[in-house]
Write the structure tokens for this entry.
Amino acid sequence: MGFPKSFYRWRPHPWHGLNIGSKAPEVVNAYIEMTPFDAVKYEVDKTTGYLRVDRPQLTSSMAPMLYGFIPQTYSGERVRSLSPTSRIGDGDPLDICVITERPIKRGEVILRARVIGGVQMIDGDRADDKIIAVLHEDRFWEDVNDVSGIPEALVDRLHHYFETYKSTPGGEADVKIIERYHAELAREVIAAAAEDYVEMYGG
């Protein structure tokens, strides 16, 4: 007797085995690697799909919201073309930061996120965009459809985190925030990353 189609005999890889979401790029699936409670930087292992410890946070700064990636996306040439000051895409899945009203204290969860904007970031010379979203069906944020609708202080914290999360105390990292963008461009970036993924790994 075979396994039913809905049953995974082995754990699916969160980058390749999960899908982007049927309503993408407006609402996407997100795999969460880190929460605002984590003092250690976690990152999915690209070979096994398990979450591994990347490094302790190098400064006292911690992610101000849930942080992970959108499955079946890839930062390649199409993403780079939307980031004109970069030289290449960073070769990773597209990062996403998700705002919730109720705290989620554990990583390695999958959720649906409604896209409201993004941050164009350059890490070295690589495009490393961060999509900003709210937890889908979170009633607290249900009227927010664009990044302009969230408190400026929260976006400032996000900028500060990414500008410093690779810095050593007393040192600097080669990371630059170029601009914050609205929901329309964020959806373009997601669509580009989905096409880059298909080109890189197939449909």
DSSP finds three helices and ten strands in the chain. The radius of gyration is 16 Å. The CA atoms of residues 164 and 175 lie 8 Å apart. Strands lie at 27-34, 40-44, 51-56, 66-69, 88-89, 95-99, 109-123, 126-127, 130-135, 175-182.
